User: Fold these one by one.
Assistant:
Number 1:
Amino acid sequence: MSLVIVILISPLLLLGLLWFWKELTMGMVLSQTTTMADKNVLITGGTAGIGFETALEIARRGASLIITGRNVTKGQEASKKIIRMSDNPKVVFKQLDLTSQADVIR
Ligand SMILES: NC(=O)c1ccc[n+]([C@@H]2O[C@H](COP(=O)([O-])OP(=O)(O)OC[C@H]3O[C@@H](n4cnc5c(N)ncnc54)[C@H](OP(=O)(O)O)[C@@H]3O)[C@@H](O)[C@H]2O)c1
């Protein structure tokens, strides 16, 4: 009898633990809606990959955002996409090559 109860409860317990792990590692942080409307944020490499996704989430929270990268066409397209997807017009692209001392000083 007790073995039957253990067999029935174990999958539910496992599913509960998996759900909690998902919430802990993904859901709780990503579902925050803390406003960033009073923040100015600069994301280097914000035109692709991890930087783009970070920039998009920050734009969704209302911050004034500058994204940078070397490729102007890619950067302008990324900034337009972020504005469209976040409905936040306060997003600009600035060209910046972090391997160039002159660019960093500028
Ligand atoms: N630790 C980890 O587990 C882990 C996992 C994934 C990624 N990473 C690291 O995280 C970083 C981003 O990865 P990702 O996959 O998101 O890369 P990605 O998609 O290639 O994006 C790179 C971004 O950086 C810009 N960039 C590249 N070189 C630059 C330079 N010299 N000056 C200014 N901007 C530059 C790119 O734009 P332009 O090409 O227009 O310059 C682009 O916006 C990489 O360094 C990667 O190695 C770490």
Number 2:
Amino acid sequence: MSGKSSVTAHLQEGFRGTHVFQSSIKTPNIQRGKSMKSFVSIATYNESHNIEGLIRGIFALGVQDLNIVIIDDNSPDGTAKIVENLQVEFPRLHLITRNGKSGYGGAHVRGFKYALEHDAEIIISMDADFSHDPAKIPELVRELRNGYDMVVGSRRVENGKVVGWNSWRKFCSKGAMVLSKALLGIKTKDLTSGYRAYHSEVLNRINLDGILSDGYSFLEEMVYWVETAGFEVKEVPITFLDRQLGKSKLSKLEIVKFFVNIFKLKYSTMRFLDKKKIATSHMLLY
Ligand SMILES: Nc1nc2c(ncn2[C@@H]2O[C@H](COP(=O)(O)OP(=O)(O)OP(=O)(O)O)[C@@H](O)[C@H]2O)c(=O)[nH]1
Ligand SMILES: [Mg+2]
């Protein structure tokens, strides 16, 4: 297959799957249940220095009916073993292990599906490296209870900030925001934040198997589909602290893929005159 046709095939494949919505019309007010069972999805690769402290920190919050699911890609540093040992102490701690490093986005998709299968009503994603302060979890949950469909821990709203990034990281993050806004019309300011809470209804209506990206561009893609489907997004300010322990997995290639994915998303929807149709038409499912 030529380069061009393979790209086309990929896009068509992506397109078939994308679109991405499982049901036809958004119900403006999702019914909020009483229990609000929640799952925190944490993707890990070589996070042995961080994972125990993070798990303890989250459970110490005392949030009712809160579970954690760790999706570990067979980290050579034994992250999964640490989690396994902690499962004795914490019955609400779940572990999924995958065979090898297969990407940030795919790991969370796996975690989200697991949470949905276990009747989660709220699904939170966060990083394992303490860039996302667990103390913010109750606020994310509260905003979902207030009626928002997705809540983003944001560095780009008033009082939100980043501590410790170099100018290259700042430039990439700003560039992603500007381009996504210009090409895709995304309104959420911090679309690269991995600290989020989704109502289960949102994840049920997005075809998680149709997500184009398995890496970090999963983040922008999720925001895109959530907004396109008409769900209400709220951004709450966070202070993002650059990782103190362990190594970053965000390679230059991942950053390039992030930008390429913006164009892929644009391409996959451009063929439709009315973008809203994608969100509302049965025709476009598979
Ligand atoms: N399971 C799994 N987890 C991953 C993978 N890549 C990254 N992660 C995890 O995803 C989270 C975010 O990765 P980081 O390396 O902190 O990337 P980042 O936060 O974008 O980059 P830094 O700001 O440099 O820390 C961390 O918890 C990682 O361990 C992967 O391929 N598989
Ligand atoms: Mg990080």
Number 3:
Amino acid sequence: MTTFIATIEHVVKGPVWGCQDCGQCVLHSTGMTCPMNCPKTLRNGPCGGVRENGHCEVKPEMKCVWLKAYDRTQDWPLPSTWKDEYNHLRPPVDNRLKGTSSWKNFFTKRDRWTPAGWKNTTEEVAAQGVDH
Ligand code: SF4
């Protein structure tokens, strides 16, 4: 069921960022480029199918979401902490949150629930000091 706050979020973020209502927003870490507009909904960078002109292999008329995210991260006057997070590993999208408010999920920390099987991997990466 769509809540009032999810409706407000959709109205605000849809036209501006092309928000697809995933309910776990990562815009700040992707140069304000919604990764859910990638036809493969990749959350951690481009696939291997980026064309020579930087466009998407699925939608040739569209620039790769991840190239756009990289350019914006470099060029836009975003906070340095946001720019740093571009290279952080983002957890897989939790489709149970689709259609819910990412604002609400942020404040309730619901968007930080760790999917089963992911926690150890994240901890291992952190322990190794790998930055992505
Ligand atoms: S809530 Fe999800 S779909 Fe909407 S802008 Fe943020 S990352 Fe994109």
Number 4:
Amino acid sequence: MSDYNPRTDTGIPTEPVGSLPRPSTLQAAYADYDAGNISKEDLEKEQEAAVKDSIERFEATGSPIVADGEQRWSSFATYPITDTLAGTGLAPNLAPGGQFFAIFADGHGRQLPKLTGGPLKYNHYAADSLAKSLPYAHKPMKQAVIAPSMLALLYPLSDPVAGYSREEFEEDIVQECVADIRKAFEVGAARVSIDFTEGRLATRDDPRNPWTGAGLLPHFIELNNRVLANFSDEERKSIGVHTCPGGDRDSVHSADVPYNNLLPEMFKINAGYFLIQLSSERDRDPVYESVGQHSRDDQMCYIGVTNPLSPRPESAQEICDAIVRAADFIPKERLGTTDDCGFSPFSIDEKPNHGSPDYAREIAFQKIANRVEGTRRAAEKLGVS
Ligand SMILES: [Zn+2]
């Protein structure tokens, strides 16, 4: 385990979720690779350049912990099982055309592959890309991994897969998620957070997307706890869970779902810390209150203080004020800060509110720099060190 102390630089800990917009040149390379116009080596060269640029600029923000922006991944959800969003490099026993993970407020959807047989094994662990990114970093790195509850959606909602029961499949994805986290720590991650965007969506009851009305939230919590049961109390301090209402193409999938459908349940997940979308909530006080009420003494609450879907950078003072307000509801010793979500969870993302992914990258780094500065100011004001 790393000896990273998240309080050293900023008093109140601060940490990103994970993704950054891919530069337009990299997005074009993904499309060219899918079309068969460039080789895998050509794509990897573009990924490498984007990772190097991402880490350099991340470090320039003053952030005490950095990430590679998931520049080598198809998406936050599908990196273990496919090389690209179009399905090039799909893992065995999967085919295109599975369930929609989400249908977003702007009408676009994101579809998962479909399980056709067993077993399901990861083609790629987060540690594989982290190991390639670490040599560029001078600061500790965090790593995001996908939750077993997201990959559970690969299994058809009502039709069993012949010769591979849901129970067998779920045991496989729990073990793969455990391996994903362990390997990330082994290669050098200082912290690992589990992306759990499907949590709030699980109570949406959207007739266009039947799994959201199937009452799956308690089962999702249980799957995540089966993973965490494989780690010691000490290890779990460095393992987080991220919740958000989605953040793709500057649109959301579950912002209109009452947050309290999720929060009391979410803190039953035995993680050491939570990265909680909050700045884009219309009414923040009740959410701070719920977080304070339902989180446990052994759970750090990293509240979202920047909105990756908006091109307006929140000022450091605005961020400081939000943290000070949150401390009225959440014990200041258990407060941390984060961005509401990754800045671009899918490899192809035009970032329409921003005008271009390249401009969205500029804005993302400004937001991160302001988050770090605002957090430092709030720690001074609250006397947290
Ligand atoms: Zn998110």
